[in-house]
Design brief:
Its EC number is 2.7.11.17. It is a single chain. By secondary structure, this protein is an alpha+beta fold. It has two domains: 105 residues, Phosphorylase Kinase, domain 1, CATH 3.30.200; 233 residues, Transferase(Phosphotransferase), domain 1 (Orthogonal Bundle), CATH 1.10.510. Helix content is 31%, strand content 17%. Strands 1, 4, 5, 6, 7, 8 and 9 form a seven-stranded antiparallel β-sheet that branches. A three-stranded antiparallel β-sheet has the order 10-12-13. Strands 2-3 form a two-stranded antiparallel ribbon. Helix 5 runs antiparallel to helix 7 and helix 5 packs across helix 10. The longest helix has 20 residues. The N and C termini lie far apart (46 Å).
Amino acid sequence: MCVNGCAVCVSVTEWGPVVWRGTGRTFPTPSPSFPALCLPPPPLRLRGAFSEVMLAQERGSSHLVALKCIPKKALRGKEALVENEIAVLRRVSHPNIVALEDVHESPSHLYLAMELVTGGELFDRIMERGSYTEKDASHLVGQVLGAVSYLHSLGIVHRDLKPENLLYATPFEDSKIMVSDFGLSKIQAGNMLGTACGTPGYVAPELLEQKPYGKAVDVWALGVISYILLCGYPPFYDESDPELFSQILRASYEFDSPFWDDISESAKDFIRHLLERDPQKRFTCQQALQHLWISGDAAFDKDILGSVSEQIQKNFARTHWKRAFNATSFLRHIRKLGQSPEGEEASERRVARHSHPGFQSGQPPKW
């Protein structure tokens, strides 16, 4: 027990380079000025693919962090994935990006002390609102664009942008939105990347084609997110995985009536530029930020909460989009093209199941 009376303590007895025992890999050196952490009873826990996130408190202060606890035995051979996330987070400092505050180590675990965000997930907050307009969606997208543009300026490609990775900083109405989950982010040393990764419903055509890709894949994902924010369902959907991938490859989507009847032409034009099939013609983040739907007064102010929240409930209900499974169909598609994804990154990603108002059978497509 520590002086704070907590049931579990995370203490670091020796400061210095964090070494992955048995491999010789060295992680970034923690800051000696960052105090050890203790977990307040009862600990809040969220479980991910190979880590657990717990609410933790700085010993001797009231400062809270989200402590990402990664068991070393579960990461044998996957150290590079965590090293990459740490390397990326060490480089970034932006008001709309969840910050890494420090790194700790115990004999059995690696601990990432992350900035605590308490406002909840994007879809949950939209559902709880009293009203929701196109202007609100424009403001949200603008914040995310600003964060991603900053990443791109550092040569970082997020590679897994999706609504689940967008969190509100606080529970208050004026809270900013935060970009999280940098497990698949990549520092782009050259012009292009080659590792296949991401979540199938949000991946750009060039990823499915196994072509070299760059920052434009993040812009495509933002186009998908923007589309969902305005109608409540995804632009690409099918119960058949090959057909889903075919739609993405053809950039085949519609602004369906009646869901898009009250949405401005400016919003549709904005989405067309983000969901451009050719990555060379696709908007950059800077171009998207300058579009009138983001920078001007083109977004409508009509309340669309009823329609959007109804579709979010149908298509991204917690029992559907929180249900995780391996993206085997996506990986199978990649392998059919004659090249397996590099490393194990893609096989570790989880993707969500969705339904859609067009599916009379009520069965969600297998994303």
